[in-house]
Specification:
Elements (H helix, E strand, L loop, with lengths): L1 E5 L6 E6 L7 H4 L5 E7 L3 H10 L5 E7 L8 H13 L7 E6 L1 H13 L5 E6 L2 H7 L4 E6 L2 E8 L4 E5 L8 H18 L1 H15 L3 H21 L14 H10 L7 H18 L5 H13 L12 H8 L5 E2 L2 E2 L1 E6 L2 E5 L4 H15 L1
Helix pairs in contact: 3-4, 5-6, 5-8, 6-7, 6-8, 6-10, 7-8, 9-10, 9-12, 10-11, 10-13, 12-13
Bound molecules: nicotinamide-adenine-dinucleotide and glycine (GLY).
The site of glycine (GLY) has 5 residues, from loops.
Length: 361
């Protein structure tokens, strides 16, 4: 078992990482009073809810089981959580527990931020993506029909409890989507970790327990450092979005149904790397290394053949990193060295989009 700390003054919190932590006393340790509301979904409840309940005997524990899927990450699903809390008379001292992937975690965190103007919550992430990214850092949100994660709050959990055993039941594609975010940390700020991933990718894909714990711990350490530096994304936290501007365009173009977020980020990271090379910021051989690692991870390395350069342009203009009409991109000046910048030649971006789309289509 390993413990990291997210250092945010009086809102600091631990991240516990290890096997079989679900029914350990780590959850209970961070429950303030006698009431707990576990929020999970219909896929995860039959697999893991009993284990979490076993660790909380003697308390008033209620559960709300949501439908599964990104399309339910809405204000109306949030009401289901508030209804349950009110029906069971949960007080301001209650603790919400998010048991699930990023969808459950983001919604539960936002519910905790709003219920009675803010109650405690604990993250128990069950996907690799949630374990290495969404459960840490306090970004909480629901989607609006006009945009993903458009309604939310920065609201930190009291603890993050990462039980690596739950990854045994994770579908293959979901594992790959999480690995994309793991690779991201190597690319944006941890070149040594990138080297490690090149050697150990096969072990990760085979769910080797030791490799998974190492990759999760190193990813969370990187994320915790970035969040501690820039909790509300005024600067360096934006580097966590490497590949996301291109990736979001792919997700939107494909209706959020064909590609998983991490898959789109994988292809997007390679586009960001190729563009960085076009700008002479990144040596070509490093682009080749990145492409090889994504392939080893079974991640896509190009956008879908149906996408055209103009469509990329339109969708990228909707990115949250557009400031005063200027699109800022996360780009690479080397493996392990990222920058957020609008200081690039826009014609070269057009050239990249045409090249990548034509290569495909
Ligand atoms: P998800 O929550 O939809 O989970 C993916 C699928 O795996 C779901 O069907 C889920 O029920 C299932 N599942 C979860 N754990 C399982 C397990 N152990 N065994 C079997 N099945 C399991 O998707 P996700 O990739 O975890 O999260 C994506 C969401 O996270 C998006 O809404 C995205 O916006 C958000 N996100 C948030 C942040 C943040 O900083 N808050 C960062 C990245 C992504
Ligand atoms: N996943 C991006 C962030 O937490 O900032």
């Amino acid at each position: 078992m390993q413990t990291l700390n997210v250092s945010l003054a009086d809102r600091s919190y631990p991240i516990y990482i290890g096997e079989d932590l679900l029914s350990s006393d780590y959850v209970r340790r961070h429950v303030r009073a006698r009431q707990v509301m576990i929020v999970t979904n219909e896929m995860i409840a039959p697999l893991y809810l009993e284990k979490v309940l076993a660790g909380l005997s003697g308390l008033q524990v209620d559960t709300v089981v949501l439908p599964d899927g990104e399309r339910f990450k809405t204000l109306s699903t949030l009401e289901t959580i508030f209804d349950a809390l009110l029906e069971k008379r949960h007080a301001r001292t209650t603790t919400l527990v998010a048991l699930g992937g990023g969808v459950v975690g983001d919604m539960t965190g936002f519910a905790a931020a709003c219920y009675q103007r803010g109650v405690d919550f604990i993250q128990i992430p069950t996907t690799l993506l949630a374990q290495v990214d969404s459960s840490v850092g306090g970004k909480t949100a629901v989607n609006h029909p006009r945009g993903k994660n458009m309604i939310g709050a920065f609201y930190q959990p009291k603890a993050v409890i990462i039980d690596t055993s739950v990854l045994a039941t994770l579908p293959e594609r979901e594992l790959g989507a999480g690995i994309a975010e793991v690779i991201k940390y190597g690319l944006i700020r941890d070149a040594e970790f990138f080297d490690w991933l090149e050697v150990n990718m096969q072990a990760l894909r085979e769910r080797n327990a030791e490799a998974l714990v190492y990759a999760i711990e190193r990813s969370c350490r990187n994320k915790a450092e970035v969040v501690a530096d820039d909790e509300t994304e005024q600067g360096v936290r934006a580097t966590l979005n490497l590949g996301h501007t291109f990736g979001h365009a792919i997700e939107t173009a494909t209706g959020y149904s064909e590609w998983l977020h991490g898959e789109a980020v994988g292809a997007g990271m390679l586009m960001a790397a190729a563009f960085s090379a076009d700008l002479q910021w990144l040596p070509e051989e490093q682009v080749t290394r990145i492409e090889a690692l994504l392939k080893l991870a079974h991640l896509p390395t190009a956008p879908p053949p149906s996408m055209k350069a103009g469509q990329f342009r339109e969708l990228m203009a909707l990115d949250k990193k557009v400031h005063d009409g200027q699109l800022r991109l996360v780009l690479l000046k080397g493996v392990g060295h990222s920058v957020v910048t609008a200081d690039y030649d826009d014609n070269k971006l057009d050239e990249l989009l045409h090249r990548v789309c034509e290569a495909e289509g």
